[in-house]
Amino acid sequence: MSEVSTRTRDVLNTAGESAPVPLIDTFGRAITYLRLSVTDRCDLRCTYCMPERMTFLPKREVLSLEELFNLATGFIERGVTKIRITGGEPLVRRDIIGLFEALGERLGRGLEELTLTTNATQLAVHADALFKAGVRRVNISLDTLDRTRFAELTRRDALPQVLDGIAAAQEAGLRVKLNAVALKGVNEHELPDLIAWAHGRGCDVTLIEVMPLGDVEEDRLDQYLPLSAVRARLEQRWTLRNTTEQTGGPARYVDVADTGGRLGLITPHTNNFCDGCNRLRVTATGQLYPCLGGGERVDLRAALRGDDPQLELAAALDKTMLIKPERHNFRMDERGLAPHLPRHMSMTGG
Ligand code: SAM
Ligand code: SF4
């Protein structure tokens, strides 16, 4: 019997009940974190993420809420303790709160944390319901506090809605972390003010380097700003202290002594974080990408829609453990970013 089917058989014992066989890849990394995209659609059009005339997937290709729940449950059964719902914009998906409520029932029963990444345009509407469902922390993407720049960057004039969303989240009791993509010549000079603004409101901030994912209308090289340069500039103004915080992802954290807040720096073009990688990503169509920076893919939708979804899902997860690459292959050539990956971040969810 092959390695895959042996493991699969172990997962499903003879009574057909699941036994907790953890997801451990061939490099010994335990997978405990799932980032699950629930839609590729979005109400913004961030220039580094997608083109203005983005072609979205036909709805029939996207997993139903029930399929998403079954999928997430399959991961929890295999030892995933943290799920981040993402997109596209997760809160534009109709009835998405139902999925949060259903998954929230698993908190304390295998699942330790349920969270989301959102652009916050709809957060004022949903913050209370998310808290009630068991969400305690949200990541909100905000690259600028300047309304005109926001409108240029996202191609929509939605900054007031986003600020309302942030306020509503905090009022509801959700801890907010802001994510900002550092963009050369766009928000680079505003980043210290954005950080100070966030820290003043009790929100940590994470800065992200732009990644070469999908075609957009601008040249990635024009957008790319290395965070080493941002950090050097911040150090002229503030005292930054390295911390030992590790999340299994590409972020490194520093404390800003002057503001009392924490700053994360995501530098995906280095791969010195891959050793501790604990995560998998699933698109809204059920395609599992073991690595954000790699081409490997496993079709979980086929498994979910197969004759024996439980068995086929378990087999697909075993296969994933065999092909999760040791390291990503984003690497800079002498001109800048390479190689380019065809899928947009709005597919894999970041
Ligand atoms: N729509 C939600 C949002 O914006 O928070 C969730 C999905 S979005 C794809 C997740 C994160 O990916 C956001 O923080 C966004 O800024 C980031 N992102 C999108 N495209 C990117 C790219 N090409 N490089 C780096 N970050 C990117
Ligand atoms: Fe939408 Fe998020 Fe992409 Fe911006 S980054 S276009 S908000 S999915």
What does this structure look like?
It is built from 12 helices and 14 strands. It is of the alpha/beta class and 350 residues long. The protein has one domain: Aldolase class I (TIM Barrel, Alpha-Beta Barrel), CATH 3.20.20.70. Strand 5, helix 7 and strand 6 form a beta-alpha-beta unit. Helix 1 packs across helix 11, helix 2 runs parallel beside helix 3 and helix 3 packs parallel to helix 4. The two termini are 37 Å apart. It binds S-adenosylmethionine and iron/sulfur cluster (SF4). Iron/sulfur cluster (SF4) binds next to loops. S-adenosylmethionine binds next to strand 3, strand 5 and helix 12.
What is the gist of this entry?
This protein is 32% helix and 19% strand.
* Helix-strand makeup class: alpha/beta
Mean pLDDT: 88
How far apart are the first and last residues' alpha carbons, in Å?
A: 37 Å
What's the CATH topology name?
TIM Barrel
User: What is the second-level CATH architecture?
Assistant: Alpha-Beta Barrel
Strand percentage lies at 15-25%
Number of strand elements: 14
Bound molecules: S-adenosylmethionine, iron/sulfur cluster
CATH class: Alpha Beta
> Low-confidence parts lasting 5 or more residues at pLDDT below 50?
12-16, 334-338
Share of residues in helices: 25-40%
Global Rg: 20 Å
| Main sheet specs | 12 strands, mixed
Quickly count the domains: 1
